[in-house]
Amino acid sequence: MADADRIRGVSSALRSPGALLTWPPPRPSTRGLVITAGAAVLLALLVLGGWAWYAAEQRRVQGAYAAVMVQVQAAEAPDAPAEAKARATRELEQLLARYPAARTVPQAAYELGNLRSALKQYAAARTAYDLAVQRGATGLVRALARSGVGRAWEAERDFARAADAYGSLVKELEPRSFLYEDALIDQARALELAGRKADAVALYERVLKDVPMARRADEVRMRLATLGTAAR
Predict the structure, then answer these.
(1) Pick from 123, 152, 147: which is nearest to 133 by CA?
(2) Which H or E run contains 6?
(3) N or C terminus: which one in the chain shows less Cβ crowding within 10 Å?
(4) What is the pLDDT of residues 115-124, one digit of tens each?
(5) Per-domain residue ranges for the chain?
(6) Left if phi > 0, otherwise alpha if psi is -120 to 50, otherwise beta: which for 112?
């Protein structure tokens, strides 16, 4: 009897006006379904619209970059006048300012560094090379940008800083990289010019040890002979 009374009590509570549960549950209204469907369609349209805008923006960036690179390649020719280099430099700077988040920023910044260096604007060249690295340059572009920083310091005869810049590049390279040999030799040369001959000798010898088939082995042995050290 006690169980039957409890069941009747629960049934009575569910039938009461204040009941929290009703069965069967109410069907959603047609108006609610329409609103939900409309919201889903609107969301889908927004996503598609955003993607279309992004794709169009990327095409604009690529088109602008390609147009500027035509000028850059002409300006990098050996017989290109200084004005052509300066004009291409301005175009690259405007491109970077117009599209600061574009995927082409590392390459554009690297090219800007090259032009600045050709114009003997070495501090500005280092800034551009550093920008290329900071904005995610990878592979060859990253390595060449780091090397560019070293060459800019070397052009200003700040050989200690040049050696540091080349050393940063060496740390990022594996001995099997085709850039490794040149980076080591660049660092050794900068150390030699900075008066740190013992450190330079150690690096020249490291070239012969780490790169047994070094392309510039004869040059390295000549430097070691000049420094009074027999090449091993």
Answers:
(1) 147
(2) helix 2-15
(3) N
(4) 999 999 999 9
(5) 52-156, 159-232
(6) alpha
Give the residue among 109, 29, 108 at the shortest CA–CA distance from 62: 108
> Is the model's pTM score more than 0.70?
yes
**Angle CA 130–122–82, to nearest 5:** 120
CA 128, distance to chain mean position in Å, is: 13
Helix, coil or strand: residue 101: coil
**Bond prior to 25 in cis (omega within 30° of 0):** no
Tokens 């013992």 sit at which residue?
198
Question: pLDDT tens digits, residue range 20-50?
Answer: 555 556 666 676 666 776 677 666 666 666 6
- 24: which 2 tokens? 């069967």
Q: How far apart are CA 120 and CA 151, in angstroms?
A: 11
d(CA 141, CA 205): 28
Cα separation, 226 vs 217, in Å, equals 14
Backbone angles phi, psi at 17, to 5 degrees: -60, -25
**Nearest-angstrom CA–CA distance, 131 and 110:** 8
Give the model confidence (pLDDT) of 174-202 as tens digits: 999 999 999 999 999 999 999 999 999 99
Helices 82-98, 30-75: axis angle to 10 degrees equals: 170
CATH topology of domain 52-156: 1.25.40
- DSSP string computed for 51-80: HHHHHHHHHHHHHHHHHHHHHHHHHTSTT-
- Secondary element (H or E) of residue 9: helix 2-15
What is the SS3 assignment for 102? coil
Residue 47 to residue 51: CA distance in whole angstroms: 6
